């Protein structure tokens, strides 16, 4: 297993001489990209019906299409290895038959590990993500559990899955180079890391509705944004965070509506839990 977090340099052909007689080093750089894919922010998805409702099969198809657009962008940018983590709910959503065969798909639970097989990756892409719980005009906004978590803070700052995942990737010395989702999702990503690449394929008009880009256009934009972000990956830093880190949860009372239900109202007295430790990944996963 590879243990370095830096791009691998496998090919070192002999220098070529250019017309001016100067040595021109030519090297093809092998590198691995890790795509962590959620479903709520995928192109064409506007509400719960496509996640776990009567149109769930369509949602799974949309997820696979966004994955394939992103995989195509990775290889266009010269990536030599692409790992895709099916990261929504239990991690078993897309039909592997639909996925670009050049990529490796990871499905199912990976207890104690947020990014299974991240070692050796040069970049992480957060694909199909969503804004943090209670963000207005954000499709299916939530933070991990729409049924039980009303809010989350990282070192005192409101945070959702984007900021937490940027922190975890940084703990493995890998930058998040691209975040895709709706307009609020990419704004949240930029607020955490101004240099990150973004691609919005829809504009939320509530927690359960959106204005959508035509799918072909959305997929083209994901492919192009992926390629562009990877080509400038050396200029995108890891998220910097003060340690020890503190995560604070606000838990909803049992029986509450889900945080992205249109009728949801924040609980006035949620149950707060706070933990401090040397790793955000450990805090999140309770290791
Ligand atoms: Zn999800």
Give me the secondary-structure topology.
Layout: E1 16-17, E2 23-24, E3 32-37, H1 56-76, E4 81-86, E5 104-106, E6 121-127, E7 149-154, E8 157-158, H2 161-171, E9 176-182, H3 183-192, E10 197-206, E11 209-212, H4 215-231, E12 245-251, E13 271-277, H5 280-285
Parallel strand pairs: 3-4, 3-6, 4-5, 6-9, 9-10
Antiparallel strand pairs: 1-2, 7-8, 7-12, 10-11, 12-13
Helix pairs in contact: 1-4
Bound molecules: zinc ion.
Zinc ion is lined by residues 38-40, 88.
Could you give me the name of the CATH homologous superfamily of the domain at 30-131 and 160-238?
Dipeptide transport protein
Unique bound compounds: zinc ion
Per DSSP, what share of the residues sits in E-state strands of 2 or more residues? 15-25%
Going by CATH, the architecture of the domain at 30-131 and 160-238 would be 3-Layer(aba) Sandwich
> What is the rounded Rg?
20 Å
- Major sheet attributes: 7 strands, mixed
* Global mean pLDDT: 91
State the helicity in percent bands. Answer: 10-25%
Distance between the termini: 23 Å
- The largest beta-sheet arranges its strands as 5-4-3-6-9-10-11
**Number of beta strands:** 13
Order of SSEs, N→C? EEEHEEEEEHEHEEHEEH
Total of DSSP H or I helical runs spanning 4+ residues: 5
